[in-house]
Predict the 3D structure of the following.
Amino acid sequence: MPVGSTPSDLRIKLMQLEHLDAVVQMMREEGWTPTRGDLANVLSYEPEGCFIAEVNGEVVGSVTTTLYTHFGWIGMMMVRKDLRRRHIGSTLLKTALKYFKKKSVPTARLEADPPGVPLYESFGFVKECDSQRWFGEPFKIRNVPGTGRATKADLEAVLALDKRAFGDDRSRVLTRLFEYSDFAFKVRKDPSLGIIMGRKTAVGTLLGPFIAANANVAKRLLRWAIGFVEEGQAYVGIPETCGNARLLLTSQRFRIKSVLTRMYWGDPPRSGNPQLEYGIAASATG
Ligand SMILES: CC(C)(COP(=O)(O)OP(=O)(O)OC[C@H]1O[C@@H](n2cnc3c(N)ncnc32)[C@H](O)[C@@H]1OP(=O)(O)O)[C@@H](O)C(=O)NCCC(=O)NCCS
């Protein structure tokens, strides 16, 4: 593909709610399926750290950041098809990384679709591992003993476990997703042992965030949640390092449908405990 010069009227601006329809439209044209609500959530985590690119007054690119304490996440990186290889993506990424520096967050992480990998590599991002998307058929189970709907108080109870699993405090993101999800389930006897949330997307019901203190809890939560998937497939995203999750998903006849590349920039990321992580919250936020 011929490489062009940077458009002379390229402007990088803070992403605002008024830009979201144009960003969603650009993503739809690429076959991505985030909703306006998904984007609004990410924007709400970091209103000063999400950016759009404008050319001729039109939105032609986007990038978001979500900062935790020790590391942050980059997401929603896209440039409109007809303007690629003109350094718009790299200008957006530079802006995002500058935001990390400004906020003194030493590590940026992300889950890259294949077209993004060369761009990230050109900035010194390094591969952490593959991140898999597992899909499975729903089956109707309406009785998994000891499992029930989670309340906001249950979410509070599980935050310490989540921090161990994820490696950082993402209570802000989980609190928002809890309100946004279609369902969330807990272990009745001890809600601090795990949680699974589920929300409908254009490609099925995403089960995540999903964390559990042990494999038995995880199996109960997953089977209960699958029973609430009304149509289409259920799916879960996990880094390949999550061995317990792979065993569980295989046993429930889930299969890998696509693979992204988890990468980092800056200091090596502080690790969580991947054996407690059974499903990421979202590609854009980890
Ligand atoms: C990835 C994406 C954002 C890159 O945007 P872009 O504006 O085309 O990227 P840039 O022009 O700034 O590229 C910067 C550098 O990245 C590398 N790069 C970018 N696209 C590349 C490609 N298709 N092949 C090889 N290298 C590439 C090159 O080193 C390039 O520098 P150069 O053009 O001077 O050689 C764009 O291709 C895109 O939107 N893809 C679809 C969505 C997607 O997959 N996003 C990644 C999600 S994680």
Notes: The CA atoms of residues 71 and 105 lie 6 Å apart.
